[in-house]
Amino acid sequence: MTAGNANTDPQEIFDDKVAREIRIEPKDWMPDKYRQTLIRQISQHAHSEIVGMLPEGNWITRAPTLRRKATLIAKVQDEAGHGLYLYSAAETLNISRDEMLAQLHSGKAKYSSIFNYPTLTWADIGAIGWLVDGAAIMNQVPLCRASYGPYARAMVRICKEESFHQRQGFEILLTLSRGSSPQRHMCQDAINRWWWPSVMMFGPSDDQSPHSAQSMAWKIKRFSNDELRQKFVDVCAEQVKLLGMTLPDKDLQWNATTEHYDFGPINWQEFWDVVNGNGPCNRERLEARVKAHEEGQWVRDAAIAFAAKQNDSIRKKNTADVAA
Ligand code: BYC
């Protein structure tokens, strides 16, 4: 596009903005498939944050010390906040929050596979922080540069908070790894159970990922699923040494040629079983979500009534001001 020769073709204006790294904003024209892709990804991301509160919430009453309890409550509360920023970002694409929640509750919309695994011991809270939040950071930092403005801006704060979450998880594991023999065993056992599901979080391999190519062309995604997965493996393979623990992969080995860690085959059958609703906790998670939504109806009603009352008193004050 050249100055003085204003382009009026909406598709060309959109393509030009994406090419020049100018953010797409809610009132800009965008291709319908771009809008739908963003609604799909952002709403699924929001659902993951909200469902992700459940496995951790399970440990708030059983956290071993007051400090651990306070930290875990703060982390779970952060995740509620992440869900809210993301639902708000998705709403700018012309979908209501009620519609998104209905899609989650009916099983139509996905949420991250990782939250369909159980949290069996306190060490699982450490493993979730280190591995699950670690994988989330790897995936989400590039999303701060996503082409859609509201999503990219929401991700900045989310990533800052995820970084705190990851450290609290690692610190829990570090404490256990320096503890008694049962504590060390619990630490290794949690790593063993959470490792492969965390590796799967990045989604199907690139040749099996139907959305990646288009999402990368639109600059929603900046790295492919496999690229991010490899970065994650490389980081964790080093960090696990600080814990004096191991990752449960006999094929994990530094490759001096590629300058990356090689790793063993991923059980994609397990991944798709979990994604398709047949993981260890899918049913339990969805039931808990629907129950919380139904039981929270009075809170939503009260909030709406309070907002209406406030609007009414502002309106009355404005009328009185005009009359005075
Ligand atoms: N689980 O073509 P693909 C968090 C689906 S929150 C379930 O590669 P795309 C945290 C995918 O949706 C973590 N489904 O898709 C929260 C698609 O199905 P549909 C969540 C998965 O979108 C609380 C199909 O497989 N993070 O970390 O290009 C506490 C084909 O996949 C998964 C985000 O949501 C999965 N793991 O790439 C602690 C980040 N993977 O929609 C931590 C934002 C793939 O066609 N999302 N599928 O029915 C993304 O970056 C991308 O959407 C993905 C998938 C990389 C996840």
TrEMBL record:
**InterPro entries recorded:** Aromatic_CoA_ox/epox, Ferritin-like, Ferritin-like_SF, PaaA, PaaA_PaaC
Q: Which residues form the signal peptide?
A: none
**Entry's Pfam families?**
PaaA_PaaC
Domain of life here? Bacteria
For this entry, list what GO says about its biological process: phenylacetate catabolic process
GO annotations of cellular component type: cytosol
Q: What molecular function terms (GO) are annotated for this protein?
A: phenylacetyl-CoA 1,2-epoxidase activity
User: Mind telling me what this protein is named?
Assistant: Phenylacetyl-CoA oxygenase subunit PaaA
Look up and give the organism this protein is from.
Answer: Flavihumibacter petaseus NBRC 106054
